[in-house]
Amino acid sequence: MPGFHSQICKSNGPNVTVPVLHVVQARLAYVAAEGELKQPFKDELPTRQAQLSTLQDTEEFDVLVVGGGATGSGCALDAVTRNLKTALVERNDFSSGTSSRSTKLIHGGVRYLQKAIMKLDYEQYMMVKEALHERSNLLDIAPHLSAPLPIMLPVYKWWQLPYYWAGIKMYDLVAGGQCLKSSYVLSKNKALELFPMLKKDKLVGAIVYYDGQHNDARMNLAIALTAARHGAAIANYTEVVHLLKKTDAGTGKEKVCGARCRDVITGNEFDVRAKCVINATGPFTDSLRKMDDGKNTNICQPSAGVHIVIPGYYSPDNMGLLDPATSDGRVIFFLPWEKMTIAGTTDTPTDITAHPIPREEDINFILNEVRNYLSPDVEVRRGDVLAAWSGIRPLVTDPNSKDTQSICRNHIVNVSDSGLVTIAGGKWTTYRSMAEETLDAAVAAHRLGGGPSKTVGLVLEGGQDWSPTLYIRLVQDYGLENEVAQHLAATYGGKAFDVAKMARVTGKRWPIVGNRLVSEFPYIESEVRYAVKEYACTAIDVIARRTRLGFLNVQAADEALPRIVDIMGKMLDWSDKKRTELEAAKKFLYLEMGYRSRSEQLTGTTEITLDTQEVAKYTNRFHKFDKDSKGFITTVDVQRVLQNISVQIDENALHEILNEVDLNKNGQVELNEFLQLMSAVKKGQVSDSRLAILMKTAEESLDLRGPVTVDRSGGGV
C-alpha cells in the first residue's frame, strides 16, 4: 500500500505483525504542517466535559486510541492530522505512567550502537539511525520543552580513550546531518574544570557527546493537546470497561467496533464506536488484548527503572555524566534537570501496577554508583535524595514469534483477527515513528483512507510562538520574576502569556504578579488555574505532570498541596472533596515519589551511633528547649525559645517540623527521638532536617539574642 513502508511479517496464524524497524526508511518529507492542517480549536481548547459529550454523541469515529501516554497521544495526533475522525481515552491522566518517569533523554542509544557494531547487527544499527532522526525532529517541533545536552564520559584507563572515542564518533556519523554538535575529547584538567565534582584519581581524560533532554510529562501533554487542537476528542480519567464487537457480514467473524467506556470521576458509562481501535496502553497492553481474546498469551515483560533526584550542586548546570559500565553491567546517567540532578536508571523485573514504588535497594544502588564517579570530597548522602520514582518499561515479545521468550528490542505493531491494532514496546524518542507505523497498519487493515502521515515537522503545543528571549517579554509586560518568566517560557512556550494573564497581583513592589506555590521553586498559583484548562482533574495531576514539583522535591510538593487543592477546589467545585484530594496526593508522594523511603531512614528502631561527647552535646541542646525536664518537647516549648531570640514561625509550620521527627506520632518529640534524628544526620541518612537546623541555630543565638532566619533548605527523602 502507498505510504506503508514497514516490513510486514507473516506467521502461521492470521495475525499481522509489523516489527521494530523501518527496513526501508519511512517517508521523511517535511511538511509545512501548520499551513496545511485545520485547527478547529486553535484559540480555545474544549473543556473536558465537552470532550466527553463529543465521545458520547459522535455516531462513529474512524479511530479510537486507548492509552494517553506518549505513544497513544502520538497515534491520536497522527490520526487526526490524516483527517481521520479521532478519539482517545486514558483511564488515568495523560502521561501518568511510564511516559512521565523516564530518564528525560531524547537519544538514539549509544549503547545500542556499540552492540550493533560489536555484533554486526544491522537491525540494531537501523534502530539507532531511526532514533537519531526522531531525536532531531523532536528537538525541532518542541524547542521550548527540549534542548541539546552535553554528556561527559569520563575515562580512567588509557586504552579506553581511543575505544570510546571511536564509538562516540560513530554515533555522530550515524546521525549525519542531524548530529546536534560534534563530540570532542577533553584532557584531565579540562574535564575537571567542566565537571569539578568528578573523581580525579586515575582520570586520564573524558569524551563529551551530545544528546537531547526534555520535560517528558509536559512533552506528552503537548502531543495530546496538539491532537485536541486539531479536532481529536480526548478524555483522561476515562477507562475502557470492555470492547464492543459486531459480526462481519462478509466473513461471519466478530470484529472490534469500539469500546464501552466509564468516566472514572462520575461513574457514567457510555459507548464509543469506531472503525478501528488502537491499543496503546504500555505495560497494560495484555489487559486490552485479553479483552479482545481471553486466550491471548502475555507479550509484555515489565521491567522497573528507578530514578532519584538529588540537589543541583551535585552536577554542573549544563553537563551530564554517563557511567558506561556499572558494577553490575548497567548504564547509569547523571544529569542536570530542572536545576536539580537526576540519576538512574535501574533495570529489574517487576509486576505490572499502576502505582510502582521505588525500592530502597535500588535507591542505594544508584547512590553507590554515583559515589564511584564523584570526588571523595563530595559526600553523597542518602538524606540528599529529594525524590525517587519507579517507571515500568514495557518490554515485549512478538506474539507471532516461535520463540515466545525472545524479547523484541524495540516495538511491535500487531493486528488481531478481530481487527484490534496493538502497538507495544519501543521508547520515548521514537514515539512519532511508532505512531506512524501503527496508523499505517490501521489504515491498511481497516481501509480508512486519510492519506499519509503529516507529523514530521508538525510543531507541538506552545512551540509555534516560542523564542529564546520570550521570557524577557513576560518580565517586561507582566512584572514577573526573571526565574518565573524563564520557567513559564520553558514549560508553556508561546502559551506562557495565557498563564501570565491568569496570575494574581502579589501586593509587593516586585514581582508585580505571580505568587509562588513554594518559595524555592518558580511554580506560581496561576499554573494551577491553567492546569485545569489542560484537563488536570486532581491535585496529583498538578504536582506530578502539569508542574514537576512532586518529581523534584516531595517535601516542597507536600507543602504546596493545601494551596493547590484550595485553588482547584474553587474551580472544580470540590466543596466536599478537598480532604479526599489532599489525602490522595499525600499518599502519592508517600508511596510513588519516595516520601516513604524518607520515613524509613528515621524510625523508632533507628540505632543511635553517637559517641559519649555527642550524646552529652545533643542532650544539653535538647534540655535548653525542655526547660521543665519533662523528657519531651512540644511546639509550645519551641515557640518559647524562639520568642527569646526574636524569631517567629507560623504555628502550622512548626507542627510540620516537629511531626517529621515525632516517630510515635504522639504530638511531642522525646529525647530518644531527638538523639535518633541526630544519629541519622551524622550517618547521612537524613540531611537538612528542619528541626535539627532550627535547634542548632537557636542554641547558638540564645546568648546573642539576635534575629535568626530559619528557612527550609530543601530536605531529603
UniProtKB/TrEMBL annotation:
UniProt cross-references to Gene3D superfamilies, sorted A to Z: Alpha-glycerophosphate oxidase, cap domain (1.10.8.870), D-Amino Acid Oxidase, subunit A, domain 2 (3.30.9.10), EF-hand (1.10.238.10), FAD/NAD(P)-binding domain (3.50.50.60)
InterPro entries for the chain: DAO_C, DAO_C_sf, EF-hand-dom_pair, EF_Hand_1_Ca_BS, EF_hand_dom, FAD-dep_OxRdtase, FAD/NAD-bd_sf, G3P_DH_FAD-dep
Residue stretches making up the EF-hand domain: 613-648, 649-684
Alphabetical keyword list: Calcium, FAD, Flavoprotein, Metal-binding, Mitochondrion, Oxidoreductase, Repeat, Transit peptide
Main location: mitochondrion
One GO biological process term: glycerol-3-phosphate metabolic process
Cellular-component GO terms for this entry: mitochondrion
CDD domains: EFh (cd00051)
Enzyme class name: oxidoreductase
UniProt key word Cytoplasm: no
UniProt KW Cell membrane keyword: no
Entries under SUPFAM superfamilies matching the protein: EF-hand (SSF47473), FAD-linked reductases, C-terminal domain (SSF54373), FAD/NAD(P)-binding domain (SSF51905)
Protein location: Mitochondrion
One Pfam family here: EF-hand_7
Cofactor(s) required, per the database record: FAD
Transmembrane segments: none
GO molecular function (one): glycerol-3-phosphate dehydrogenase (quinone) activity
Catalytic activity: a quinone + sn-glycerol 3-phosphate = dihydroxyacetone phosphate + a quinol
Pathway connected to this protein: Polyol metabolism; glycerol degradation
Xref: PANTHER family: GLYCEROL-3-PHOSPHATE DEHYDROGENASE, GLYCEROL-3-PHOSPHATE DEHYDROGENASE, MITOCHONDRIAL
Family: Belongs to the FAD-dependent glycerol-3-phosphate dehydrogenase family.
Function: Calcium-responsive mitochondrial glycerol-3-phosphate dehydrogenase which seems to be a key component of the pancreatic beta-cell glucose-sensing device.
Name of the protein described by the UniProt record: Glycerol-3-phosphate dehydrogenase, mitochondrial
Organism for this UniProt entry: Oncorhynchus kisutch
Gene name of this polypeptide: LOC109878276
